């Protein structure tokens, strides 16, 4: 009997099978060790060529990573065994042992992990280790593998061999990484060959208790896609046989790390029950909230992260008649209810409240971020500069002086020395850095800036040159992050500041680009919710559109929608003098019976070829062609939005990861693991997926939360949806199965297979009509999908035949139909809405 077997003989082991091709995910974990690790001050490489493309950006090697490589080249890592077990990672959610997160400053990370591996027989067992950071593995106290690529967010793999004993070998792994803002910190230890092993972790709990907690954590989800107040109800597939304590926490946003939880509650899921209530939502802001859960029986605990939407009124509110009145109302709301960010301080001052205690606290917190050069500090420096320029006489003298000192000490670009991990290279960050430098130089022209050694006038001149390059790029190529509810507010930070404070052509260019942004928002907003295809999206924007900051922008601009806690840029809009053209409201709020169609391009190389059909009831938007077959990032390719309910939305994608609550890029719902070929013609869209064998996920799926629709129905292989007078019909041209358990219940509809051809139809129902009208329409519809030729066809009575070929694109009535308007300025046309049973349907 091995030493490990002797040590564990008197302790209970919880065992989990690991089959060939599976990963080892049962580990006892230490706490996370975090060490500020900036490296030596240096200049960064200026790789900004003002050609913005979504996805990984090669930024060169930052000082922190250079320092890590120097250290690992000479160090010796000793095995540590006296660490306390903080938590247990169990199989069920993710193939990875994953600790990915966001760190605003350069931080060196490490975590000890332990398991017991039991092969069928003694001998060497082959594994493949994949990580972005570094891994050391000891087997029975002897170092067996070392793999340290330390390549930022870029996975590397190595095949290793571990000498294991059938009686059980103790495997201890040290996982490390160097955090530079968003950090993919994980290990995949994949079993190779044809021999299964068992992973085991010591546990004081009965193995059935652990399995029961795992099942609860795997299956937990909110009863509906949203809640309107207390309580939040969580539901499960199976009831526990004994009571389970559940601890729930909602943490502040990543920008407020270290502050108390927004929600901290405990409850008990009683034996035999399949749902539980979480109270304490009364004072919470309306948002899409991450929810951290801990399931406990005695000392046995299982962790899970999910999320939920909170919106107290699911119908949009009509705003005041005038734009000025809506601006005042939104400014007041932001001052009273905004997120605890610098934008709320601006709203307080702009509302005439003076520098209140909260206002001072927000300014001081912002200066900490600026002085520490945290990532995203450029986003908050711009409104801080606005405050300094507009309201410094209202600030206490000491506060005004410290704000000035922060401005003078900041690092404004990569040609200034530093050892931070601020992100200088993406479309929105480049803008905000240049705007910060521009405003700082404008406001303090004769002052010496400490990091660069330049005078303010010199900073201003440099920023003017750099902003001209940024404008040249975006005016020529459009936005890489098109229609993004996450990133348009960040673009607004820079552009609104330039429109308000800028001089000459800089201000004029900002004004024109603001109008272009608002036109695109108007086109893709329906009933107050900005939606549509997006260049970059996260789950929170897709699953809770009314809770994004872009929603109150639309509410102020067009007079219908929601205010919320978003204050990154909204107070700048409301405190400034920019006014969107009044005629854009007709695009945002089409009249009943009217349709709006639009085509335009966005992004370098026409990355987004955008097609739009909308009526007062429903909206269909897609990004055409793209790069079919390539790995996706955060591009949201096809979207259906309904006017009848705030959360009435549907889309189709190929999951980018296994976990429905995951946060990879692409994730399960946001983005595509494999990009599809797409064609759209009016109220119909066709999608072709060809998923490579190398991708683990071999299905596509549709998202449609049933509680947001008046009717949801499967009709053969068609998914039918109704919200208000809007309908949609979706089919993968093969068997479509509803997910009836777990997080996908009442939300998810899957089509198995690596090749799929999806058809999406939208339109308006006649007065008093329901899904029976849609079923009748579908009786005359024929779809044909040929996976061998990767061709998809749609035939409808009185309409031209649509055929999408994976290589050649879309044909209409047998004729090639290239994208009709490859220009940044949208080509917009108005017509009659496609109403079932009317002549408009046949003519549209």
Note down, in words, how this protein is organized.
The chain has 844 residues and is of the alpha+beta class. The chain folds into 4 domains: 3-202, Sandwich (Jelly Rolls); 207-310, Immunoglobulin-like, CATH 2.60.40.10; 324-588; 608-821, no CATH class. Helix content is 25%, strand content 31%. It contains 18 helices and 45 strands. Strands 1, 2, 3, 4, 6, 8, 9, 11 and 13 form a 9-stranded antiparallel sheet that branches. A 9-stranded antiparallel sheet has the order 37-38-33-30-29-28-27-26-45, with no helix packed on it. Strands 31-32-39-36-35-34 form a 6-stranded antiparallel sheet, with helices on one face. A hairpin with a 4-residue loop joins strand 40 and strand 41 (791-795). Helix 9 (427-443) runs antiparallel to helix 10 (456-477). The radius of gyration is 28 Å and the shape is globular. It starts with a helix and ends with a helix.
Topology:
Layout (H helix, E strand, L loop, with lengths): L2 H6 L4 E6 L8 E3 L3 E4 L26 H12 L12 E3 L7 E2 L2 E19 L3 E9 L2 E6 L2 E6 L8 E9 L4 E15 L2 E6 L5 E6 L4 H13 L1 E2 L3 E2 L4 E4 L8 E7 L12 E7 L5 E4 L9 E10 L2 E11 L6 E2 L4 H15 L4 H9 L6 H15 L5 H15 L5 H13 L17 H17 L12 H22 L10 H14 L2 H20 L1 E2 L2 E2 L8 H5 L6 H9 L1 E2 L8 H6 L9 H4 L5 E9 L5 E8 L2 E7 L13 E5 L6 E5 L23 E5 L2 E7 L8 E5 L7 E5 L2 E6 L2 E6 L5 E2 L9 E5 L2 E10 L6 H8 L3 E5 L4 E5 L6 E4 L3 E4 L2 E2 L10 E6 L6 H5 L1
Helix pairs in contact: 4-5, 4-14, 5-6, 5-7, 6-7, 6-8, 7-8, 7-9, 7-11, 9-10, 9-11, 10-12, 11-12
């Amino acid at each position: 009997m091995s030493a490990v077997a002797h040590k564990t003989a008197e302790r209970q082991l919880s065992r989990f099978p690991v089959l060939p091709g599976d990963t080892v995910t049962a580990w006892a974990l230490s706490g996370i060790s975090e060490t500020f690790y900036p490296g030596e001050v240096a200049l960064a490489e200026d790789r900004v060529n003002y050609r913005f493309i979504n996805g990984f950006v090669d930024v060169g090697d930052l000082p922190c990573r250079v320092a890590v490589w120097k250290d690992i080249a000479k160090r010796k890592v000793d095995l540590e065994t006296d660490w306390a077990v903080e938590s247990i990672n169990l199989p069920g959610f993710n193939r990875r042992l994953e600790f990915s997160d966001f760190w605003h400053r350069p931080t060196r990370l490490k975590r000890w992990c332990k398991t017991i591996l039991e092969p069928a027989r003694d001998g060497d067992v082959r594994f493949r280790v994949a990580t972005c950071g570094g891994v050391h593995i000891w087997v029975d106290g002897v170092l067996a593998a070392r793999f340290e690529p330390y390549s930022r967010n870029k996975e590397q793999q190595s095949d290793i061999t571990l000498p294991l004993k059938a009686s059980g070998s103790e495997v201890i792994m040290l996982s490390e990484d160097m955090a530079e803002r968003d950090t993919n910190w994980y290990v995949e230890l994949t079993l190779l060959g044809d021999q299964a092993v068992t992973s085991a972790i010591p546990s004081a709990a009965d193995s059935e208790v652990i399995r029961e907690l795992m099942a609860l954590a795997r299956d937990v989800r909110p009863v509906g896609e949203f809640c309107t107040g207390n309580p939040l109800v969580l539901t499960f597939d199976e009831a526990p046989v004994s009571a389970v304590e559940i601890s729930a926490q909602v943490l502040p946003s990543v920008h407020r790390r270290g502050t108390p939880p927004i929600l901290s509650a405990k409850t008990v899921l009683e034996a035999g029950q399949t749902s539980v209530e979480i109270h304490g939502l009364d004072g919470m802001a309306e948002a899409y909230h991450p929810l951290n859960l801990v399931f406990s029986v005695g000392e046995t605990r299982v962790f899970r992260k999910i999320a939920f939407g909170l919106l107290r009124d699911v119908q949009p509110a009509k705003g005041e008649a005038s734009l000025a009145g809506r601006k005042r109302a939104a400014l007041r709301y932001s001052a009273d209810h905004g997120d605890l960010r610098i934008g709320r301080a601006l709203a307080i001052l702009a509302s005439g409240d003076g520098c209140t205690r909260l206002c001072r606290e927000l300014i001081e917190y912002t200066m900490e971020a600026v002085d520490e050069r945290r990532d995203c500090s450029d986003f908050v420096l711009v409104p801080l500069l606005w405050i300094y320029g507009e309201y410094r006489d209202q600030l206490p003298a000491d506060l005004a002086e410290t704000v000035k000192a922060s401005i003078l000490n900041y690092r404004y670009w990569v040609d200034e020395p530093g050892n931070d991990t601020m992100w200088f290279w993406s479309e929105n960050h480049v803008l905000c850095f240049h705007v910060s430098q521009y405003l700082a130089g404008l406001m303090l022209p004769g002052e010496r800036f400490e990091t660069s050694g330049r005078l303010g006038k010199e900073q201003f001149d440099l920023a003017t040159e750099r902003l001209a390059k940024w404008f040249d790029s975006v005016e020529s190529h459009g936005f890489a992050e098109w229609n993004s509810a996450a990133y348009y507010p960040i673009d607004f930070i820079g552009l609104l500041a330039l429109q308000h404070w800028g001089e000459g052509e800089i201000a004029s260019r900002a004004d024109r680009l603001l109008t272009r942004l608002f036109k695109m928002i108007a086109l893709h907003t329906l009933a107050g919710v900005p939606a549509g295809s997006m260049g970059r999206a996260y789950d929170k924007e897709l699953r809770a559109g009314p809770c994004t900051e872009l929603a109150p922008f639309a509410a102020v601009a067009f007079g219908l929608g929601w205010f919320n806690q978003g204050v990154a840029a909204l107070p700048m809009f409301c405190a400034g003098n920019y006014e969107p053209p009044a005629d854009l409201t007709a695009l945002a709020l089409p009249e009943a019976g009217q349709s709006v169609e639009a085509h335009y391009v966005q992004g370098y190389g026409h990355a987004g070829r955008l097609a739009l059909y909308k009526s007062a009831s429903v909206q269909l938007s897609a990004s055409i062609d793209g790069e079919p077959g390539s790995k996706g990032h955060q591009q949201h390719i096809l979207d259906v939005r309904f006017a009848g309910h705030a959360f009435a939305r549907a889309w189709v994608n190929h999951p980018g990861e296994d976990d429905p609550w995951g946060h990879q890029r692409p994730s399960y719902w946001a983005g595509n693991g494999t990009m599809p070929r797409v064609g759209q013609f009016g109220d119909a869209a066709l999608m072709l997926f060809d998923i490579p064998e190398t991708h683990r996920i071999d299905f596509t799926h549709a998202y449609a939360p049933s509680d947001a629709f008046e009717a949801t129905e499967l009709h053969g292989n068609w998914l039918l949806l109704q919200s208000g007078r809007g309908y949609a019909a979706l089919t993968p041209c093969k068997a479509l199965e509803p997910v009836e358990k777990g997080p996908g219940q009442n939300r998810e509809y899957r089509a198995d297979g690596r090749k799929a051809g999806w058809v999406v139809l939208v339109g308006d129902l006649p007065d008093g009509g329901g899904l029976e009208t849609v079923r009748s329409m579908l009786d005359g519809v024929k779809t044909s999908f040929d996976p061998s030729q990767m061709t998809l066809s749609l035939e409808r009575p009185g309409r031209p035949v649509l055929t999408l070929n994976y290589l050649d694109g879309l044909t209409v009535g047998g004729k090639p139909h290239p994208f009709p308007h490859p220009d940044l300025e949208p080509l917009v046309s108005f017509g009659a809405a496609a109403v079932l049973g009317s002549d408009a349907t046949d003519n549209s």
